[in-house]
Amino acid sequence: MSSPSSTKPDPSAAAPRTGDGGTAVPVPAGKVKLPPVVWLLGAVAFLMGTSEFVISGLLPQISGALDVSVSSAGTLITAFAVGMMIGAPVMSMATQRLPRRSALIAALLVFAAGHVVGALSSGLGLALVGRFAAALGNGTFWAVGAVVATAAAGPAASTRAMGVMVGGITLANIVGVPLGTAAGQLGGWQAPFWMLAALAVTAAVVVARQLPADTTRADTSLRAETAALKHPRLWLVYLAIALIQAGIMAAYSYVAPLLTDRAHLATAVVPLAMLGFGVGALAGTTVGGRLGDRRPYATLIPATALTSALLAAITLWATNSVVAVVLVVLLGGAGFANNPIVVGEVVRIAGADRSLPMALATSAFQVGIAAGSWLGGIALTSGLGLRGPSLAGFAFALAALLPLGLLAASRRKAGSVTQS
């Protein structure tokens, strides 16, 4: 076990070096070694991501076991999204006077309890309660964990730290969700619930041992938390987060019918195409995390523009199976490159010690996911048919360029004022 001091950022690593003549030379973000706590929180994010998305692969089994329709069982996904949207900021404020280590442990235990309730459910009502509780734990973890990770990494590597945490969710889509789905199909739909509950309790024990006990908030007042929300740039970041996520999810929520019915891909190959999307997303998250610390908007705007172009290409040309799969994989890379950068911008604007702004960033992601999947479904049933979801996604991603452009302009203006 590492000592408590090993989880704190190395001041010398984050501080600028001094060159000849005393000139400060910034340390490249990629050369700053991330502390172990960041990787620990990335592993916890893997659990959270597995829980959020594994339900989609188990809806037939859950609907049969609970004696409800598949669409009714799908409300378990809605309950989780609502729990994340509402619960993240509420739980952030409810735990604001707790030391961060205690808040993270509490989040993991609530997350575990939600899965236990879900596994013991014999009806949809209790299962919904369990999913909502798990979402509260997930939202609390992101509100507090992101602050802990960026503070531990230091300003020179804060976006890389967020890249590790977002990468945990991406890896969950590649590994955790397929494994959880297989476990549910082989051992009953409750099996992944029990596994996630056990792993969450284990993670709580590890967090209790690895995080220093004195990791407390610098300012725990409600006024200080809400004051951080007065920055106009912060709300532009939230808007960009929601629009980017809506763009990706409008298309990806309906990727299976796109590939099988429009691109004529064999049904058995669809999971491999989705695996390719996950691999692309992991690569994009890694690249975005490394580039975003140095040039956030010089990375964000091209990545979002490329996301828009790929969604337009899917709308126009995804009628061939090879072309469609390549475009889907590239969409994962371009779309997910944004995630660690926009979260890093929330930390930069609001301050590293503010959990409420981070909680609202979590809510913005969920708003985008819900809005994208909903409007993508409406577009699918319209006259546009299978071209509808990607076209809706294109409109969302294109709209995201407006707040990103305003953010880049205000950043340049602030820099020129500082220099003058």
Radius of gyration: 21 Å
Uncertain segments of ≥5 residues (pLDDT<50)? 1-27
Biggest sheet overview: 2 strands, antiparallel
How would you write the strand order of the largest sheet?
Answer: 1-2
Please state the average pLDDT score.
83
Q: Note the total helix count.
A: 18
Question: How many beta-strand runs?
Answer: 2
The first-to-last residue Cα distance is 49 Å
Residue share in helix: over 70%
CA-based shape: globular
What string, H for helix and E for strand, traces the elements in order? HEEHHHHHHHHHHHHHHHHH
How would you classify the helix and strand content by structural class? mainly alpha
Strand content: under 5%
Structure description:
The N terminus is likely disordered. The protein has a two-stranded antiparallel sheet. Helix content is 76%, strand content 1%. A hairpin with a 5-residue loop joins strand 1 and strand 2. It has 420 residues and is an all-alpha fold. The longest helix has 32 residues. The radius of gyration is 21 Å and the shape is globular. The protein contains 18 helices and 2 strands.
Structure in a nutshell:
The protein is mainly α and 420 residues long. It has helices at 11-14, 36-54, 59-66, 70-73, 75-94, 100-119, 124-153, 158-187, 191-210, 222-227, 232-252, 255-262, 270-291, 296-317, 321-336, 339-350, 355-380, 388-419; strands spanning 17-18, 24-25.
